[in-house]
Amino acid sequence: MFDKLKSLDADLLIFLNNLGSEQFDFLWLVLTNKYTWIPFYFYLIYLHFNLKKLNPKSIFSFFLIIGLMILFTDQSSNISKHYFQILRPCHDESISGLIRIVKEGCGGLYGFFSAHASNSFAIAGFFYFSITNYYKWRKFLFLWAAIIAFSRVYIGVHFPSDVVIGGIYGLASGYLAFIFYNYLLKNQFFLSKSV
Predict the structure, then answer these.
(1) Would you place residue 157 in the very low, low, confident or very high pLDDT band (cuts 50, 70, 90)?
(2) Contact assessment for residue 158 and residue 88, using Cβ atoms and an 8 Å cutoff
(3) Cα 89 to Cα 36: distance, rounded to the nearest angstrom
(4) What CATH number should be reported for the domain whose range is 2-186?
């Protein structure tokens, strides 16, 4: 059963990865680069603070929760990679000749599950639930996260299952971070009685 799923995963990767072409490679390399999105992250933070009147200590709790969420999803991915030891497609000799490896340097040996996918879906999930006044466009956060996840398949460093599981894990992590953040605000955690 596992071998059949693994074979289907590899076939889907080969199909999706080979849809790409050299003329679009630069675009996907830009999209998959975590530094590309720094202005977007600042914009999300601005929207969040624009909706809530926060004092300095609750701002601290916001950044603490966001930092812990990213650390949690990122390190969970690393633990999973070393536990399951599923090769990245670009390191898997049985298929590496069948895919386009767009990125220079494949990354670590193992790929299950994708930290890019888990981090982007965690961010999308957290802000989806927290910036409720922007209902008309906040659903596009998930499109953004899906593009980041797909970019990992496009450049040949992750199987589709790596990004799907990473995305689900990240979304759950983002929702739990949102719940915990609201708990801290409601209970005025990190706030002194004088505030």
Answers:
(1) very high
(2) yes
(3) 24
(4) 1.20.144
